Amino acid sequence: MNRILSIVTTAYRATQEEQDDAVLWVNRALVNGGAQIDFLLQGSAVNYAVARQDPAGLVIGSVAIERPAVPPADLLAAQDSGMQVFVDRDDVEALGIEPGSLERQFELIPKTSATALFEHYDQVWLW
């Protein structure tokens, strides 16, 4: 079976319209079907690793988002199903996110180590 590294670079894509991030959802669905996929969060998607996000009560203009996406919870659930979650430390620092505010279960790696991950996978997907 092919091992896949799914690199997510854009955060909150279509999350106003949907209950979750479509990229996270499709990867989890593939894992539920037997695929072996891990995540690498880069760019603005490193925000998904910030713990204790609470989007309840989110209102955009006059529209209340009744079931907002909670990507950290989705990623923790992905880990529970056997997926690994890596987070680009350089992008965390570039965005001014305190490393201590991240979910401890996710592995911080420097950008220079990201390519070394590729050796462990048969396919690398970029979203």
Any overview of this molecule?
It is globular, with a radius of gyration of 15 Å. With 127 residues, it is an alpha/beta fold. The chain has four helices and seven strands. The longest helix is centred in the N-terminal third of the chain and has 11 residues, at 22-32. The protein has helices spanning 22-32, 71-80, 89-94, 111-118, and strands spanning 3-8, 36-41, 59-60, 63-64, 85-88, 107-109, 123-126. The strands form two sheets. Strands 6-5-2-1-7 form a five-stranded parallel beta sheet. A two-stranded antiparallel sheet has the order 3-4.
CA radius of gyration is 15 Å
Q: Please tell me the overall pLDDT.
A: 89
- Uncertain segments are none
Q: Give the neighbour order of strands across the main sheet.
A: 6-5-2-1-7
Counting DSSP E segments of at least 2 residues, the number of strands comes to: 7
Order of helices and strands: EHEEEHEHEHE
| Strand composition percent | 15-25%
Query: What is the global morphology?
Result: globular
